[in-house]
Design a protein that fits this description.
5-stranded parallel sheet; Oxidized Rhodanese, domain 1; 300 residues; 2 domains
Length: 300
């Protein structure tokens, strides 16, 4: 029952959102690039691309800048605490988790009403719902300053302290990043080092979604739990997530939270920050060779 209520409270279907738009105050936030937004968006949606592009560090100064930047952005598009914020991207498997990154940021900031459009813009269009090219009239608001931040943000020091402990460190990057062939989605050599955090388990972020007639949607709580079980992660484990800059891991953060995982936090600085600090350890050996070595030891 609790799992279903969490699922319902965060993910919203296109039909549900269409009903909400005429019944309660909502601020719909399009996280796509400006040109794609201009070509067609949900009626009344505002464009806030920096939700996806902003790169953060986990130093005290970096997190202060992250908080102040987005408190200003969210206020400028009309979030006062009374409105429901609804994030969307084009499709859940093509935007690197950008709408979920908005959900994660507002969760961290303590905002009370947050939703993500399950299936994204593609699902909205597939149902024949209205699309607009008009720029909305935006009424800025004062983003609430008295919110209590949620304990979901990790620093690199906290992650370093968790290495080789009972904490389940989960890497959700694409396969070429996990194997060390590439350093990032922005190019193989965008970051200075390739590899992964020591002891991390890996579930590629795409695996938390499934096809539907309207495009990819999130898997059910039971399906998400099953995916995590393949990596030895249970819903009562402490799970630390990372990717490259906290977008794909935000997608997984939402998936795990709606599946009833009770202690999930994210290293928002992720590989973009970790790889630039030579004092921090990484694993670089090919995981397939490591697995082969273990199998050989068992055979012996």
């Amino acid at each position: 029952m609790a799992i279903n209520s969490v699922l319902t409270s965060v993910l919203v279907s296109p039909e549900q959102l269409a009903s909400m738009m005429g019944a309660e105050p909502v601020v719909i936030i399009d996280t796509r690039d400006a040109d794609t937004y201009a070509a067609g968006h949900l009626p009344g949606a505002v464009n806030l691309r920096e939700i996806f592009t902003f790169l953060a560090t986990s130093t005290a100064e970096g997190l202060t800048a992250l908080k102040s930047t987005f408190a200003e952005h969210f206020g400028s598009i009309g979030l006062s605490g009374l409105e429901t914020a609804v994030f969307y991207e084009d499709a859940l498997n093509s935007g690197y988790g950008q709408s979920c990154r908005g959900y994660y940021l507002l969760t961290w900031l303590g905002y009370p009403k947050i939703k993500v459009l399950n299936g994204g813009f593609s699902a909205w269009k597939a149902l024949g719902l209205p699309v607009s090219t008009a720029l909305p009239t935006v009424k800025p608001a004062k983003f609430p300053a008295d919110l209590t931040s949620a304990d979901v943000m990790l620093t690199k020091d906290e992650v370093a302290a968790a290495l080789h402990t009972d904490v389940k460190l989960l890497d959700v990057r694409d396969i070429d990043e996990w194997t060390g062939e590439s350093s990032s989605p922005y190019g193989k050599d965008f970051a200075p080092r390739k590899g992964r955090l020591p002891g991390a388990k890996w579930i590629e972020w795409y695996r938390f979604m499934k096809p539907s007639p309207q495009g990819p949607v999130f898997k059910s709580p039971l399906e998400v739990q099953a995916e995590c079980a393949t990596a030895g992660i249970a819903s009562d484990d402490t799970v630390y997530l990372y990717c490259f800059k906290g977008a794909r891991a935000s997608n997984t953060f939402l998936a795990l939270k709606q599946a009833g995982f009770s202690d999930v936090r994210m290293y928002f600085g992720s590989w973009n920050e970790w790889s630039r600090d030579d004092s921090l350890p990484i694993e670089t050996e090919a995981p397939v060779l490591k697995a082969k070595s273990a199998a050989s030891a068992l055979a012996a």
